[in-house]
What does this fold into?
Amino acid sequence: MTCSLHACLADPAELQRQLCAAVANVAEQSLFAFAEPCAQADFDERAAAVDGWVRARVAFRGAADGALSCALAEPLARELLVAFLGESPDGEPADAALFDFAGELANMVCGDWLTHACPDTLFALQRPEVSRLAAPPGEPGTLILVNEAPVWCGVHVDKAAA
Amino acid sequence: MTSDPSPHPLRLLIVDDSAMMRVMIKRAVSLCDVPVGAIFEAGNGAEALTVLERESIDAVFTDINMPVMTGPELLREILQRGWTNLVRVIISTDGSAARRAEMHDLGVRLYVEKPFPPEVVRDVLTACVPGGSC
It folds into this structure.
């Protein structure tokens, strides 16, 4: 099999399709959630109603060096954490648990995407970096609804390997 | 005529730098009907070695990318120390053929790709008990 990474990085529509597929796979397999593409206007409307966001960034090195980021509404992150663990924690999940989960979510999306884009290529994924945002990232990205809540996913590439 | 002895409850070690992933794997294990005696946890390969030196473990479930000591580094240590009876299971987001081949060379016979539904853990544990496929 060939690596489609560089072709998809040069084709925004294909990149969006692949990222949406990766998020949907993670949502369905591990979170018992449903993911679907979202139009910009719909995303903006739903995002405006969200108070806080959690963003997780996973850097990768391999056929290309870069990073994948996922930003999701904080209430959705808490809902998905409960689904991931299969139980409701006593009270609200601590920030450490929420950030750990958000990082693992981005890690799974990144790994799923790279494995499908380049099934024969080794990549090294770095430890996720997680932070809070007041609003979703303004840069272009893939817009997705997970359980009808907004999720932003984007890829930044540093350089293509020779 | 003698009957087969009941398998002893498995003693497992889960190695992942994500505490939430360790909780999720433990929960998936608890849903299985395979007898499990004890579950130990480690946040990286170095912590895992400390547990393996101290405890009798039947199977280790390890991630690949971890700080301090990675999964492949842990697996090399296990080979160097001759702990070849230990069932080694990879649980990783990296499902590439190249990574699977690398792990196979390090003695891994069971590979779980994240994301995974909980029932995948049941299949892996079933393979780990005596008479299983690994």
About this structure: The two ends of chain A are 19 Å apart (CA to CA).
